[in-house]
Amino acid sequence: MSRLRRIVDFGQQVWLDNLSRRLLESGRLERWLEEDAIAGVTSNPTIFHKAIAEDPLYQDDLARLRDQEPDPERRFEALVLPDIRAACDLLRPRYEATGGDQGYVSFEVSPHLAQDAAGTLAAAERLWAAIDRPNAMIKIPATRACLPAIRDAIAAGLNVNVTLMFSPRHLDDVFTAYRDGLAARHAAGQPVDHIHAVASFFLSRVDTLIDGQLPESAAHLRGRIAVASAKTAYARWREVFGDEAFATLRAAGARPQSCLWASTGTKNPAYSDVLYVEELIGPDTVNTVPDATLAAFADHGEAAETLTAGLDEARERLAELKALGIDLDDVGERLQREGLAAFERAFDELLRLVD
């Protein structure tokens, strides 16, 4: 049995953090779905920049669109949304077989809208309509400004992948927005049983930043904080979606918003290349992995239910960090700002490429 497929035994989905026309037309994505139980796909501007720059399959369509579509952003969407639809169609049987629990494909709104709730919601609704697939997910950043857009997108019946989450504050804000959106939709007499959302909690960047702030006396915390934070986030998830406040929505068919572990490619070569997969396997969660991490786990990863193990130790590590004067919420705000700036640069480079 595939090592990746063993993760499924513990109730976790593995999604691929990559998409390109070559991946679709070569049959490689389909083989991963069949052989390794890959249950979803995510995309972002960096992924599509690499695909368009390197994949000759885009060039004829791009030349045609340069004549037909004057706006670079709309040109980019016209170029890649067929790939999003094709991936959705490829994953549609899994979506239907699991009653909508699996089989999603994510596409991101422009990062330049991250401080514009109305603009983000309008873009999310436009992209949702353009993709026109029930197993699409629209990625919206977890900025404070976009929390109303997340809530309203859920209330409008969209599937949402909330991205750029780094801290306990981000987690609570996003869980609240999701629940409020479901509650508003339910109160309006609209169905909630088809809506699915994930909360993408970024990991490796947390360790990269915090490792550089730790004194030598706290060297034992290096490479340990992201996993500890994720374990406590999952414990918080169980509290938020297991309480009586969610019971009414659950009875109406609503699903809890799933925790998704993102940024799982190990950046520090001193750490295991499957650190953010092996340490965070548990039920009702998603791990989205780039190709290299996928290959590494397929080669030597070990699957076991690790997410719920060592929770007390995780909390002790976070308490040590706080005693050192390092606040995870402050770290999260910095990383979110830096992540947004990186996404904006990637998006601008992408638009220059298609222009």
From TrEMBL:
Enzyme Commission identifier(s): 2.2.1.2
Main localization (coarse): cytoplasm
InterPro entries documented for this protein: Aldolase_TIM (IPR013785), Pterin-binding_dom (IPR000489), TAL/FSA (IPR001585), Transaldolase_2 (IPR004732), Transaldolase_AS (IPR018225)
Family annotation (PROSITE patterns): PTERIN_BINDING, TRANSALDOLASE_1
Keywords, in A-Z order: Cytoplasm, Pentose shunt, Schiff base, Transferase
Record field: catalytic activity: D-sedoheptulose 7-phosphate + D-glyceraldehyde 3-phosphate = D-erythrose 4-phosphate + beta-D-fructose 6-phosphate
Domain spans labelled Pterin-binding: 278-355
Purpose: Transaldolase is important for the balance of metabolites in the pentose-phosphate pathway.
Protein name, entry field: Transaldolase
Organism: Halomonas beimenensis
